[in-house]
From TrEMBL, chain A:
The keyword Protein biosynthesis does not apply. Signal peptide: none annotated. Coiled coil: none annotated. This is 2-oxoglutarate oxidoreductase. Pfam families: TPP_enzyme_C. Keywords: Oxidoreductase. Gene3D superfamilies: 3.40.50.970. Residues 63-209 form the Thiamine pyrophosphate enzyme TPP-binding domain.
From TrEMBL, chain B:
Residues 247-339 form the Pyruvate:ferredoxin oxidoreductase core domain. This is 3-methyl-2-oxobutanoate dehydrogenase subunit VorB. It comes from the Bacteria. It comes from Geomonas oryzisoli. Keywords: Oxidoreductase. The lineage of its organism: Bacteria, Pseudomonadati, Thermodesulfobacteriota, Desulfuromonadia, Geobacterales.
Amino acid sequence: MQQVFKRPQSLKDVQTHFCPGCHHGTIHRLVADAMDLYGVQDRTIGVASVGCSVFLYGYFDIDVVEAPHGRAPAVATGVKRARPDSFVFTYQGDGDLAAIGTAEIIHAANRGEDITVVFVNNTTYGMTGGQMAPTTLVGQKTSTSPYGRDKSKDGSPIKMAELMAQLGGVAYSARVAVDSPKHVLEAKKVMREAFGYQAQGKGFSFVEVLSACPTNWGMNPLKANARIGEEMIPYFPLGVFKKEEA
Amino acid sequence: MSKRLFVKGNEAAAMGAVEAGCRYYFGYPITPQSDIPEYLSRELPPLNGEFIQAESEIGAINMLLGASATGARAMTSSSSPGISLKQEGISYMAGAELPGVIINISRSGPGLGGIDASQSDYFQCVKGGGHGGYHIPVLAPNSVQEMYDLTMHAFDLADLYRTPVMLLGDSVIGQMKEALIPNPRPVRELPAKGWAVRGKSGAEQRVVKSLFLGDGELEAHNWHLHAKYQVMKEKECISEEYETADARLIVAGFGSVSRIAHTAVTMARAEGMKVGLFRPVTLFPFPEQALAQAAARAGKVLVVELNTGQMVEDVRLSVGAAAQVSFYGRPPGAGSLPSPEELLEVIRKNYQETAR
């Protein structure tokens, strides 16, 4: 009998510890699938960031360096410059990448570092308990925006994939979602494309993934999934914003 | 005969780094250390190395973290306010046991301060600086030659103990020009870097991290780090003594001020006073035993610093009740370097007190 579906080789055979309905598992699969596609597991160095995503090394069977909060793109820069033959990706949440690490991501992208950045946007700080993030939607209630995000006071949610697309060093920038099978399949294609840029040495690639945090959103997994389509995608449109020809 | 060069202290440190095999440098401009990135931006690319002018000191220290994690010899440099920004990364590197060299050509403060010579960051450098209760070796050169030699030594210490190492100078040491003999790098046996991330290549997964969540894991890790510091205290103390054998007063000072103190001690000897100089070269580990022995013989120590009193605390801890300790300091401020005559006057006063 032909096997048509299996665990990617780059993922360990372990149980997830993430909350019910959390999308980290799905996104890990997409990343591992892209790694397998290009056969880079043995030369990959993952850079783990702070927050729920730090546990990268528990799931991926690859070498990993842990970075301080927000600094993953700088750490990845050091890794890739010292070992240009390695395959380097960061995996960062929205607080990490779009708040404390804004300088690091913009400048690594602008230098055109030959790395791939996976940006998990769930509009909140997950591990610290659901505080307001730079991507929190206007009106969204969080533990530090109990009256809802106020645009006049807190500013507007940052659209990172579009921002990245403006920078000269960026070869590829896209936004995907993992709320439905259709979107997951699209995300798989985009993740493969993004990893392909680095696999072929074509420069900095960026994938923003809209994902759910049911625990901190105070929703069950189904409602959380639905929120991605109903509230997030209208503000954070899916698509490829930059795709440089080689 | 080895060649003799006439170079700046900052350049000597950069040359020492290249000789030590450092091929990756990440930094951000700040006075009075910018000769270091300027030199390495020119010299590293032809050696197949990399120079990156980072977006910030925070970016630079984390690039160092990444490069060091791959096992490469790498460096950053900065000056006081920049070192404050780097402290987060230094703490992470200490926690994850990553080697790396950080040159700090310190300036005066607090805040923006000025670019004149100052030793007001002793506590920040020697007592951890960042969060979490760690130490890193801190080396304090007082000449252009030592900027070169101790930078090479710093890379070896970093690899030997898997720790960041800081070279602490100031604008006197960094900006002055002196003769330098660029000796070849000493041969030292160093442990293999089996822990470095390189991509698995069929081997077991390697993880460089400072997060330890398992029961008792973090405590065990901290005891491990503590044990390493004890070994450093036993094996890695460096100090220099001048005329201490029969001294009844020991002047203690490090870095730039030790040069002025050296002149003042020579002047005091010419006046017949039995005065000696003790210079810690390693500020961590602090040369407690060597100082305690010299101090016990003399009975009195005069600590001189370009601040209002920081190293003096380590001196007091080292000598305990074995000797009397006094202090003379000049806090940061333009032109606040003491002259040899000024120190000689302080020495006279302290020496007369010992005679009573």
